[in-house]
Design a protein that fits this description.
Blueprint (H helix, E strand, L loop, with lengths): L1 E2 L8 E3 L2 H5 L6 H14 L5 E11 L5 E11 L2 E2 L15 E6 L4 E7 L17 H15 L4 H4 L8 E18 L7 E17 L5 E2 L1
Length: 207
């Protein structure tokens, strides 16, 4: 790991791009190019930019951009992302922080080695079938019991709506049953979007 100034890296929170950009002379695009150059110089050319996170200190006196890079295999990235700034704690991940001075920090978490190719060729289910399974299972996985969802007079107590904004084909790591330190990367369809929930007459919340 490399860090130029630890006091300026921690104690910051994700912010809106416009708010962070107002404090920096470097654009997010130029900062991303610097981050990409660092990753390439380190020899990790098979990693791709997965997420950009503008960051701002609590007292709004310091800002920078944080970029997250994920490994890509045969054109598909390991995608644990859910349109947020948080990733699986065991995910292989390169992070690069960039501010007006230059590179603020570089870190490589959970470094992994590709050992072998288990299945040279595989086929996915047709997407129409994938979509059908998703539409069924999203209701099962996030279902509320009847006592939670409906009042005694049968009025609605809890309501949840799902809005899917994008669907991506990527890879997911599944631990081997015989060795938790070894994982299989398998192709998966990932559905991203927003959930809007409302309890009774309370204001709805979207996340």
């Amino acid at each position: 790991d490399y860090i130029r100034d630890i006091s300026k890296y921690y104690g910051v929170m994700p912010s809106e791009r416009e708010e962070t950009g107002a404090m920096l002379t470097i654009s997010q695009e130029d900062a991303a190019a610097q981050a990409r150059a660092v990753v390439d110089a380190l020899g990790y050319t098979d990693f791709v930019l997965a997420y950009a996170q503008p960051c701002l200190s609590d007292n709004k006196d310091f800002a920078y951009y944080r970029f997250f890079f994920l490994r890509q295999i045969d054109g598909a990235s390991v995608n644990y992302w859910n349109n947020s700034s948080y990733a699986d704690e065991n995910m292989e991940l390169i992070q690069v922080g960039v501010d007006d001075v230059g590179i603020l920090r570089v870190s490589y978490d959970n470094a992994q080695d590709i050992l072998s190719e288990m299945t040279p060729a595989s086929e996915l289910l047709p997407f129409s079938q994938i979509q059908s399974v998703f539409e069924k299972m999203i209701l099962v996985a996030n279902n509320r019991t009847q006592s939670e969802g409906v009042n005694k007079d049968e009025s609605l107590q809890f309501k949840m709506d799902y809005t899917i904004t994008s669907v991506r084909l990527g890879l997911m790591c599944v631990p081997e049953s015989s060795d938790l330190n070894t994982k299989l990367s398998i192709p998966v369809w990932a559905f991203y979007g927003e959930t809007t929930s409302q309890v009774g007459d309370q204001p709805a919340e979207t996340f």
